[in-house]
Amino acid sequence: MLNRGRDKEYFTTHRILIEDGKGIGSKRKNFKSIAYSTIIMFSVQTAGGGIDRDAECTVWNGHLKASISFSKSKVDIFDVYQLLNVKISIAKLKGTPDFVDPTPPNMDKK
C-alpha cells in the first residue's frame, strides 16, 4: 500500500486498486480497479535531481490511464517496474481468476 496525501494505492495479487479522496473533509471516495490482465502498457519515470523527489508509474488498460507517484527515498521505481512485468506476464498467461458479477446485490433487504 502507498499513502500519499488523500490517495492510496494497493498492489494486490490480481490488480491495482486506487483509492482517491474526493475533497478536504469529505468522506466520499472514488475507487479505480485495474486488473493486471487488462494492462496493455505501462511506463515508469525516475526521479530527477534537485526539487523533483518523486518517481512515477503510469498504467493504461485501454479505458483508463492511472498515474501513481512514489517517493524516491522510500521506493525503488525499478522494483515497481519488475513487479509489474511479472504480474502482467503471469496474468496474461493464466488469465485472471477474478469474476465480477455485473448484477448488483439485492438492495431491498432491511
Characterization of this structure:
- This protein is an alpha+beta fold and 110 residues long.
- The chain has one domain (2-94): PH-domain like (Roll), CATH 2.30.29.
- It has one helix spanning 77-94, and strands spanning 2-4, 7-11, 15-21, 29-35, 41-45, 54-60, 65-71.
- The longest helix is centred in the C-terminal third of the chain and has 18 residues, at 77-94.
- It starts with a strand and ends in a 16-residue tail after the last helix.
Tags for this entry?
flat, single chain, 16% helix, alpha+beta, 110 residues, PH-domain like, 3-stranded antiparallel beta sheet
What is the CA-atom radius of gyration, in angstroms? 16 Å
Helix and strand sequence = EEEEEEEH
Strand line-up in the sheet with most strands: 1-2-3-4
The count of domains is 1
Helix and strand composition category: alpha+beta
Report helical residue fraction. 10-25%
Q: What is the helix tally?
A: 1
Number of strands: 7
The fourth-level CATH homologous superfamily is: Pleckstrin-homology domain (PH domain)/Phosphotyrosine-binding domain (PTB)
Topology of helices and strands:
Layout: E1 2-4, E2 7-11, E3 15-21, E4 29-35, E5 41-45, E6 54-60, E7 65-71, H1 77-94
Antiparallel strand pairs: 1-2, 2-3, 3-4, 5-6, 6-7
Question: Outline of this structure?
Answer:
With 110 residues, the chain is of the alpha+beta class. Helices cover 16% and strands 37% of the residues. It is flat.
